Amino acid sequence: MKRFVNKTVLVTGGAAGIGRATVERFVKEGAKVIIADCNIEAAQKLAASLKDNEYKAEAVHFDASNEVSALMAVDKAIELFGSIDILVNNVGITDLSRDLDVENLDISYFNQIFHVNLLSMIHTTRAVLPMMKSSGGGSIVNVASIGGVTGDFRGTFYGLSKAGVINLSRYIATQYGKYKIRCNSVSPGLVLTGAANNNLSGNAIKTFLSHNTLPYLGQPADIASVIVFLSSDDARYVTGQNIIVDGGLECHNPTVGEFDE
After folding, report:
1. Per-residue confidence at 206, pLDDT binned at 50, 70, 90?
2. Which of 21, 142, 212, 256 has the fewest C-beta atoms under 10 angstroms from its C-beta?
3. Which member of 55, 109, 158, 176 is catalytic?
């Protein structure tokens, strides 16, 4: 299925994990994709491998802590491909050694995590809106987290920033729907990316699995498929929504995982 022929997509954090899977899914469906990442070497390597397979992809440097970098990434995307039809805001960080419970939070971490996880999405969105308005519409998908919906014993700033992403998406959808611009968010549960494996112990991963209603954990491609759906005309009447993609983690009573029946 080629749903994105003649469409240009900008994916931030596109060199690894969910971002990489999203890039790969978009190009296979005909899109021209800009891979925006702070790891420019990894982004360039991915772009080169995709071009070797006759897909259309380019890499640009993107520093989510820098507003100018967001503007430059958007400008470069327009220079390379002429437009941006779809924006996927996928950058996010967490440092669980600093992002603890409220009493023990490293308060100095607030500015960094909120800038990267939330403010960077505002910067990229502000940069693409004029193009989308003038071209008759577009789609924005913001990657949030199940942590933006539920509470936890740590990861307080991360959860608060991702809750902000969810509501930012509603505000964008509300304010720019009249220009045929849709905006939705996706909230993954545990997805087995490199970052997840680096931040969580084996016991923590097993705990997530025991509370999923499905007998497996998510892969990056599982989230990419939802992002791509929301970006497509198949979702032309879907906007302002937060889609939870968590294997059934959030839908049940706490007895699941504790009892066989």
Report:
1. confident
2. 256
3. 158
